Amino acid sequence: MKRLILALLLAAAPALAVTPDEVLDDPALEARAREISKELRCLVCRNENIDESNAELASDLRVLVRERLVEGDTDEQVVDYVVGRYGEYVLLKPTTTGANLILWITGPALLLIAGWVGFGYVRGRRKAPDASATGLNAEEEARLKDLLEE
């Protein structure tokens, strides 16, 4: 019996952040709220969603999500409202549009540019004449002879 209770507590551990007073009476709305909460970042805990976070701000965000759902907003409208209020940083999976598109493309683009520059440098070094094989010209030999005689 103790093992069963322990297993149930461990299985419910991620949901312990949601307090009983936050839970909606309608199971369908509560399920939608939980799904939306899993997509939103706790601004205090950083890489933890608001459904799992015990921070006060995460609790406020969970309540806000549930209020918007009770008012009749769709899931997208709720997420858009929260993003409009807190910025795109609140999304655990950022969008790939607008300014974020630049961030998504810049890394691979710089890697390709660096590879191209490195390839060009190595190729240019292979084609460069070997300075040690050419020897000294007459002026350099005369200067070296003068230096050695001093």
UniProtKB/TrEMBL annotation:
Superkingdom as given in the UniProt entry: Bacteria
One of the record's GO molecular function terms: metal ion binding
TM regions (residue ranges): 101-122
Signal sequence range: 1-17
GO CC terms in record: plasma membrane
Span of domain CcmH/CycL/Ccl2/NrfF N-terminal: 6-148
Alphabetical UniProt keywords: Heme, Iron, Membrane, Metal-binding, Signal, Transmembrane, Transmembrane helix
Protein family membership: Belongs to the CcmH/CycL/Ccl2/NrfF family.
Function statement: Possible subunit of a heme lyase.
Name of the protein in question: Cytochrome c-type biogenesis protein
